[in-house]
Amino acid sequence: MGPKNFIIAIVLAVALSVGIFVATRVQTPPTLIAGLVLPATTPLPEFTLVDQSGNAVTPDSFRDQWDLVFFGFTHCPDICPATLQVLSAARDQLAAAGHEPLPRIVLVSVDPERDTPELIGQYVGYFGDGNLGITGSLDELRKLTAGLGIFFEKQPGDGKSYAVDHSAAVLLINPDGEFHGLFSGAHRIENYVHDLPLIMAGK
Amino acid sequence: MRSFFVIAAILMGACSAEPLPPLVATAVVVTRPVPGSGTSAAYLTLTNNSEQAIRITRVTSAEFESVQIHESTLEDGVARMRALPELRIPPRKSVTLQRGGKHLMLMRPDGSADIVSLQFFDGQSLVLSVDAMVETKAH
Description:
The structure holds 2 protein chains of 2 kinds.
Chain A: H1 3-25, E1 35-43, E2 49-51, E3 56-57, E4 67-72, H2 79-96, E5 104-109, H3 117-126, E6 132-135, H4 138-148, E7 152-154, E8 164-167, E9 170-173, E10 178-183, H5 189-201
Helix pairs in contact in A: 2-5
Chain B: E1 23-30, E2 39-48, E3 54-56, E4 58-60, E5 64-75, E6 78-83, E7 87-89, E8 94-97, E9 102-109, E10 115-122, E11 125-133
Antiparallel strand pairs in B: 1-2, 2-8, 2-9, 3-7, 4-10, 5-6, 5-9, 10-11
């Protein structure tokens, strides 16, 4: 090896060492698996609905905690209970791992015709304590859903037996009561366990 | 999530010389109705051992007022649920009913039974009867 090649070899070796050193020191921001944080958070639209105890629910009701908000209906046997089970299991896993804060789980009924406060209260209570069930008039519900880009549509049926199509996303509302991010379906426990602490810590 | 309480309904005859029954149900799961909802879902795999397609056009249960064959879909961010007129199981094939897909929707429970019986009809003829344990609380 001539002196010129020797110098090149040393330069390359130094460059490699520096590269490795920098690579191990520079923190790449952790990436979210499924969650999406909005580029700009938005306040909730004005609306007045009721919770399972008959208390008024307004945009202010979403202040002071993180909320995971799902839109569904109690007569839905498949996707709605599966989604609430995922949210509830994710919350339990975060609690078991000592995470703070823990999000509240909220179900907004897109079937206010059948979902009385009592029914929705029994339903959300089944998936854990502290969950919030929301129902109310169709007009007030539309103010909330339209303001958040949530779609729902009652389907033709047989009297009291009908289905309601609805957006499958779970919305994340931050403690300032602003629409902060969302998870699209299909919902998986591990995605929430991974992403929620990152999103909540980034606020 | 806790493991589900699954009863696999094995309808194979004890004597190996007997032919397989035309339709067999396995991995049957019946969810416990969530309070307030009055609805359960049943999930299972139906295997057609015969050389002819089997059509399930009607399902009944003594423990529920009404049973419907449904399919959930998730498309363009929207969850939908539709009644299917029938379940067709091609010859020598299986059809799986599972969460987020095809399922039986069991409506208006008559009491709170721990065992649910399901009868599957092809037209007027009963092609399969299954008893299944209702799953323990999933949460």
